[in-house]
Amino acid sequence: MSATGLTALSSSVPVRPASLPCPAASLTAFRIMCDHYVEVKVQLEQMKSLGEDAEKQGVDTEQVPVSSVSPDPSSITLAGRDASNTSITCKHRGKSHSKSGKDDKNLCGKHISGVSVSTHVGKNLNRLEHEQTLHIKGTGRILQGKSETNGNYVTIHPSKNIQETRREDGYNLARKRKPVTVDSSKAKTSLEALKLSIKQLKWKEFPLGRRTACDIYWHGVSFHDNEHIVSGQVNKFPGMIEMLRKINLSRAVRTMQELFPEEYDFYPRSWILPEEFQQFSTQICMVKENDATVNPTFIVKPDGGSQGDGIYLIRDPSDLKLMAGSQAKQAVVQEYIQKPLLVDKLKFDIRLYVLIKSLEPLEIYIAKEGLTRFCTEPYQEPCQKNLSHVFMHLTNYSLNVHSGNFVHSDSQNTGSKRTLSSVLYRLAAKGVDIKKVWSDIIALVIKTVIAVVPELKVYYQADIPPGKPGPTCFQILGFDILLMKNLKPVLLEVNSNPSMRIEHEQEVAPGVFGYVPSPVDEEVKVGVIRDTLRLMDPRHRKPSISSQLRAGGFEHGEAIPVEGETRERNPDEGGALPSLCLKPVYPKYTKQFNYLRLAERIAALFIRFLGVKGNMRLGPTAFRTFIRTCKLSNSNFTMASVDILYIDITRRWSGAVPDSREAGMGLQAFVEAFFYLAGRRFKSLVLREQVVSLLELCEAQLEAQLGIEDRRSLSCSRALPRAIKTQTLSLNPLLSSPAPLRRAASQDYRLHQRLNPRTLRANVEN
């Protein structure tokens, strides 16, 4: 610029204070900055080429020193970032606005040889902090720095990976989310433990319910405590109460005993009354005739009884009380365990809490801590004189609490109710292999759940059909387990509504009874409820099935590790809560127990041919469709024979289940028919191999038919307009976009894939 121009420029600006730079100084600074930006551009181009060469050669380019970009020596640090642009951030501080500052900003806003500079003005205008970011296109890196007021150096700090930053942002956002809401209006006796759990989790409770939907609904009795839930999670499965009645549980276990007699020997031999009374009487008479010294004892349990109500011991079938007024009593009679393990000369049982988190996929958790309930009278083997001594033979808390010998204790190691760990420590001190005991208990729990899951799935699809809005379910069960003298665990029963009361009834004054806190109950039950809620927290992302299956598993026949070799993931990000007291056991040990899930595959066939949503029974037409589809009829087994088989089995089961919801063939009747068909078709094999072979045949036929239907629908859709084609494809459940419909329609196929018949056959041969 000429001297005249400079004179004109100086005359066109107002007089500035002495402390501010003159126009000539501003122009000089402008030229210097232009030179420096050119230098920066050249240096960055060099760094880009060096970085590309280094990446090709596998060299780490995390930090690369570069020369100064200011008149004085300074340093620049290059930091790697997964970004598409690279930026240099500079900050200029000044006390007031100047034209040179405006020129600088204008310059920074221009594109200089492929370099774009953007300016971000801070909120504090008094400080005039102008943050300038230089974007270098195509480098994939970012440079950040700050120009101090003295102009001596620019420091460019390494920036974080974008994905890492987003994860941190998501984590901070999650911490600011609204608390989980819990509807406790139907909690009943578990209310106090639930309140303490919600308080520890810092969630929000609605004790009177809520008009809008809650995240979790806690019911005290059954799934149907609240009939108007269309979303969220409920702590009860539909049908669980019915499935865990004494008779239904015995039938489910008996089915598994037919297939796997050695695996299900933990359940005492049982007879269902009154329908099997004659069979029971005949077998007992035969035993006594063969050996006159044998005089077994049996325990009778009412089908719908609880808390020890109606339980009694007998030694002869004639002592059975079959009638209640004019109606026959529904009950189960079982072999009595005459040699239980004793502690302090007292018989005891174990109450173990088990969480079924999901049915599909099956997820089971077992509480690491449980309760032991002791009898209040020293044990003696049953004889005719002591059969009526309930305080000696029955471990039910609700019975023994009325005994004068019952001891309420604040200690976990003494009293008539103690923690399971305290008893196991005493046994370990005597040389008992506690790991083996725990391993056997875990196996018992998993096998029992596998036995009841098929019927539960039928109830579930009836109450929450695929495609219908509804909640997801989970449930805490109470397993009552008895240890025999040889330390073998025996299943007594499973409670669908285990008591979660953390108080016990006690005489607080002469003749006055009230509820006082029970430290032992609170220690165990609050932890179970709290950690169940933590596992069901809707804010936590559910891991995929494949990752769960990759997490562990043991081959059939291997021992199950029972100690905490691997620490379970704590779902509480804050870390303020203790580690989970619930141990995942399935699908963790899926490889060891997957071969047992044959009845579940039969249930998948049953559900597939039910047809009508909400139906639980198979009609004659649906049964004939099943036979035709799977091609099970032939010249020796005509459709007329199929009808006779259906009528015969259905008539017999309708008499055995008088309170059934509807007419038709239920799952247990279908299982009997399936066993008959398998035995008829594969006569030379044992029952288990017969069932496996028939399952493979039916599943192969269904898959072939499904492939034909898919090809037909695809060929038809090619000839249709686009709009009609979309509607046609959506009719195919496997291609439908809603996830629940797709999951439900492919349930049989996925189940077949997870339970590979080849694996099952190998396990059978082993």
UniProtKB/TrEMBL annotation:
InterPro entries: TTL/TTLL_fam. GO terms for molecular function: ATP binding; tubulin binding; tubulin-glutamic acid ligase activity. Residues 64-75 have a biased composition (Low complexity). One of its GO terms (cellular component) is ciliary basal body. Signal peptide: none annotated. Residues 90-99 have a biased composition (Basic residues). Keywords: ATP-binding, Ligase, Nucleotide-binding. Residues 53-107 are annotated as: Disordered. It holds the Pfam family TTL. GO terms for biological process: microtubule cytoskeleton organization. The keyword DNA-binding does not apply. The keyword Nucleotide-binding applies. PANTHER family: TUBULIN POLYGLUTAMYLASE (PTHR12241), TUBULIN POLYGLUTAMYLASE TTLL11 (PTHR12241:SF154). This is Tubulin tyrosine ligase-like family, member 11.
